[in-house]
Amino acid sequence: SNNSATDACVIQHNLFKNNYNPADTQGYAYSGNDNRSIYTDGSISGGKLTNVTIDANAFIYTLTPPDNVEGAIGLECYTSGAQTNIRITNNYMDGVGKGILYYDVVGMTVTGNTITHVGDVWTGVFRDEGNSQNVTIQYNNVYDSYGPVLRIDQRAAPGDSAGYHFNNNNVFADGYSVHGGISFQQQTGINAAVYIDPNSYNGTIDLTNNWWGAANGPSGAYSGSGVGIVSENKTPLAATVSPWASAPVVATETAFMGFTPADGAPIQAEYYNTGGINIAYYNTSATDPGTVFRNGETVGLYNSTDTGGGFYVGATAPGQWLDYTVNITATGTYRFDLRVATSAAATAHLPIDGATSTASIAIPNTGGTNKWNTVSLNNLSLTSGTHTFRLYIDSGSPNINWFQFINTATSVPPSVVTSLAATAASASQINLTWGNTSTTQSGVKVQRSLDGTNWTTLATVGASTNDYIDSGLTAGTSYSYRVIATGLGGDAAASNVATIATLPASSVPTYLSDLTWGSATAGYGTVQKDKTIVGNAITLNGVAYSKGLGTHAASTVVYQLGGAYTTFQSDVGIDDEENGKGIGSVDFQVIGDGKVLFDSGVLNNGNPPAHINISVAGVQTLTLIANNGVAGSIDYDHADWAGAALYGTPVAPAAPLNLAATALSSSSIQLTWTANSASQTNYAIDRSTDGVNFTTLTASIAATATSYTDNAGLSANTKYYYRVRAVNSAGSSGNSNIANATTQQLFTVTYVSDLTAVSSTTGWGTIQKDKSIVGNPLTLNGVVYSKGIGTHAASSITYNIGGAYSYFVSDVGIDQEEDGKGQGYVDFQVVGDGKVLFDSGVLTNDQVAHINVNVSGIQSLTLIANNGVADNIDYDHADWAGTELLK
């Protein structure tokens, strides 16, 4: 609290924008503390608040009206008389829930404020919820709101309010439907700008000298045609209303947010004046065609794709206009620049202070409604001071992003950009960098030429930008570039010309993230492909890369190239994900066969990425190193190798070795092999039924794979032949050795869990059929089994199978329900007629063994789960999963 009669609390010159928290709903669509910007908390007792000035702030767009929400300013202390001497002056409120919500206030002055589009249908712009004394509300401009302007009741605090002076205000277009919104009038049938509940005000309220939107005064309890004045029971109030003003008392049109922009810088088109339709703008549309900004008005505003983003004015039409109040700082000759986009030619003109209009502004077809260009009106003579400019559309439907007034007598062009350099990044991309940036430049034009004479502007980038990527180019083609600084005084001379050719068409990149590394280590986490070390998109200086390596210093990644490439390219730096967290420091090095080919020096978060473009011709082993730039400090060292790629004519990889085939069932064969190359991007597998005529089974096996299970239409008791090939952009390797396997016979399946055991014991609990020992689904390594037996080591189960079956099949392991609880150890055994047919060895939580044993002639079958660690039975939830007898 501020409790000093001599030391005022001043809250001034702040912008409260989009102050809305949709999660704080308290069970309603919009309620609670959703959008208060300045607030005294009623739950605090014992404090006092006095001598407070809230002046010249802007409160905008805390909701999409109309909704029932809280005040932009809330004076809500429940202690009577605890809030005194409050001054709320010269503020701008647009699109708030209520303007000011208050109770238990003594001595409050509200003057000089502009308030519009207040969305609370029931409450009002000024909401007194009880027991407020000596309130003066004067010289405010309040319009286009959905509920009453002033409402008094006792909802929060008992006690009548008194001593009001509500005078010399503009009150118009309030309390009813504005441009199609839901309103107080629609909810109650009452058109009310002032609405007072019974027994809530003591005495006669002073409502004199206000303009109620019509020369003949207010309606409601009065006979005028302006906005209404009523009480809750629709009877006349004890109020003094006459005399009223027959015209606006204060200005109905003011600069947006109460801030008057000046010449010399862009003024956003969406910042047209405040005042509403026919006062600050005119639009032929009856509804708002765009809903991204200044909701409740009928000007079409949309998200802009132009440099700098923001919004633009669209859906324009001949006869529409927008007013702007601008401060011209010096008398002189000005150039009026207008940023536009249109698919057809248009014209406009610019009346000033309601006087004769200027010459026509010709707006050519810019190539599309999102293709932005700047047109100018020259030799505009203006005097110093504040002027109102009306941008009037005469023909066409141009989109408008911004405009500016440039004093051509005082503005000079920025200095020339130096040190332009171009680098061929690929067969379709060239990267540009340049040196100095002038303090007077507002942007940099990037231009390209095929002949060095005829130039095309590619883009205008920000004033502080020092690089540009030109993509979509033709392979093996020479391009010339220049850049031109632009500013308020026009364009500088062009920079030096940089000329370079894109890489040849044969130079298709082979991305390191598509190859198999020989080894990879990181100082933190695990090296990632096409992601940062923590799994985000690789991003350097705002540029996102779809390919690359994400590491953390100190890290080392090694590739075996076999001399197959000529060039290595990459951008390196600390990922943007660390910006704002701390300062990282990384030194990037590229080593070829033990020789340093590149060293970036120490890079920090704020540095632009370093570009690598080096020869790796003949290099057998390529090593990428990211060292800590500061010894012993690894914090924030998220080191990216962005877009890391090899160029040249790669050679086909070597053929895989040691291909083996094993039949898993009557319809499944497993293949395993050994990699014999690091340059493959994938494997292809061929299959045959005669060992001579092969067809490709699949060509999309991952480069890191060394096994594959064929389940594709195999027949029981049939021999199949296989071979494997390694593939990259150069083609396919030779064939591996041929391996074959015969699928198992098609058996009749009997699930062991459907049989009755002769005897059974378990180390804990009760043996379960088709469930784990604690009754959950049988689950091993993420695979759920519908059939099987759940036990707990040490356990033993014996079945009399009478020599009736040929094979016993099962997966065994510790159930996944124990993951994260502790480490189990179990040894699984299958015993037939006293002879051990299978022993898994000790399995831990994450291991699964597959059993497929011959049980022909076996009479007695015993399934044993032993403790893997003697006398330690914790977590030994032993599953016999998918357990089958085949015959």
How many beta-strand elements? 75
Assign the structural class, choosing from mainly alpha, mainly beta, alpha/beta, alpha+beta, or little secondary structure.
Answer: mainly beta
The count of domains is: 6
Radius of gyration: 40 Å
Shape: extended
Give the proportion of residues in helices: under 10%
Strand content: over 45%
Poorly predicted ranges: 23-33, 64-68, 176-184
Contiguous helical run count:
1
Sheet with most strands: strand arrangement: 3-6-9-12-15-18-21-20
Mean pLDDT, all residues: 87
Largest sheet entry: 8 strands, parallel
Q: Would you write up a description of this structure?
A:
There is one protein chain. The chain has 887 residues and is mainly beta. The protein folds into six domains: 9-240; 256-407, Galactose-binding domain-like (Jelly Rolls, Sandwich), CATH 2.60.120; 421-501, Sandwich (Immunoglobulin-like), CATH 2.60.40.10; 510-647, NPCBM/NEW2 domain (Jelly Rolls, Sandwich); 657-742, Sandwich (Immunoglobulin-like), CATH 2.60.40.10; 749-886, NPCBM/NEW2 domain (Jelly Rolls, Sandwich). The chain has one helix and 75 strands. The chain has an eight-stranded parallel sheet with strand order 3-6-9-12-15-18-21-20, with no helix packed on it.
Give the tags.
887 residues, mainly beta, Jelly Rolls, Immunoglobulin-like, eight-stranded parallel β-sheet, six-stranded parallel β-sheet, 75 strands
Quickly describe the structure.
With 887 residues, the chain is mainly β. An 8-stranded parallel sheet has the order 3-6-9-12-15-18-21-20, with no helix packed on it. A 6-stranded parallel sheet has the order 1-4-7-10-13-16, with no helix packed on it.
